[in-house]
Amino acid sequence: MSSNPLRTTLALVAATVLPDAAWAQSSVTLFGTVDVGIAHVTGDNSSRTGLAHSGANISRIGFRGTEDLGGGLSAGFWLESGFAPDTGLGTVNGGLAFNRRSTVSVMGPFGEVRLGRDDSATFLNTLIFDPFLTNGVGGTNAFVMNGAPIQISNAISYFLPPNIGGFYGQLQHAAGEQLNTAPTAAGEYNGGRFGWRGGAFHVSGSLAKLQGTTQALDVRIRNVGASYDFGVAMPMLLWASEKRGTVEIRATQLGVKVPVGAGEIRAQVSRYDTVGSNADWTKVALGYGHNLSRRTQVYGAVARIHNGAGAQRSIGAQGVAASGTNLGGKSTGFDVGIRHFF
């Protein structure tokens, strides 16, 4: 018997709870990100400085695992919680909750069927075609324009199998779970995302509808993105639209990532247009991340928003709220920090 009492106890629990075959064929991984920095944001007449987080990658902790079921089938789970390392608190009412992802999957030659809370299909393009991965002061506003969901609860997703000539795809349905006598299926989400990646080229598009409590509050989301890796630089283009009732906001952004030694320059110019209105704004951002190792990076970014006469968008950071901007005003911000994967 082992001389380590903790190891002995864990082994006894595993032997009691899990069949030997399942214990041998399963794997569970603890993973996460800790990302903390300092951010300074300004509006027209005020500013705010503080300890921020998630400037390069969202701070999170999670567990994931798979089990070989035989016959080419496998099962898996993924539980992921966001947290704020500047305060030590979770991002859901101050407590840890698996708000970022909580899914169980069955995978095989047919692809993957995944159930639970997950990223929405339409959010993913705004993530991967943004050189800042939607994070920090430099991240895109294309996923927070007009009510589109980032994560979606009660989701059923089907993913095409990998290795089909570079093509990939996803269909997603999330139930609103309303009574059948309710006037609308509020909260119901139906969407899909399809793309192709071959060599240096990558293109993907998505489309979805999120039902509101009335038809006037329905949100319709469309976006398409593309990138090409030239080696010395990878330009990327994203076009996105969110229409909530009669109000439609469209984004066009051009970004680039440039490898420099052990680091990477990131830059982006974005234009956001509210159709039929002067509530438009423009954002420019420039940043750099330097890899101290495969897991640890120091980073910095600076950004500026210029609002049209009918807009008052402001730059903020996770953990440091925007300081406020007047209609037609300007907002700037910068952040510096360190990110570590585990």
Outline the structure in words.
- With 342 residues, the protein is mainly beta.
- The protein is 7% helix and 54% strand.
- It has helices at residues 5-17, 20-25, 123-128; strands at 26-42, 47-53, 60-70, 73-84, 89-90, 101-108, 111-119, 151-159, 167-174, 189-198, 201-210, 219-228, 234-244, 247-260, 263-274, 281-291, 296-307, 330-341.
- It has a 16-stranded antiparallel beta barrel with strand order 1-3-4-6-7-8-9-10-11-12-13-14-15-16-17-18.
- It is globular, with a radius of gyration of 22 Å.
- The two termini are 31 Å apart.
- Residues 1-24 have low confidence and may be disordered.
Globally, the shape reads globular
Helix-strand string: HHEEEEEEEHEEEEEEEEEEE
* Strand content bin: over 45%
Query: Order of strands side by side in the largest beta sheet?
Result: 1-3-4-6-7-8-9-10-11-12-13-14-15-16-17-18
Counting DSSP H or I runs of 4 or more residues, the number of helices is 3
- Global structural class: mainly beta
Radius of gyration: 22 Å
Helix proportion range: under 10%
Number of strands: 18
Uncertain runs? 1-24
What's the overall average pLDDT, rounded?
92
Largest sheet: 16 strands, antiparallel, barrel
Distance between the termini: 31 Å
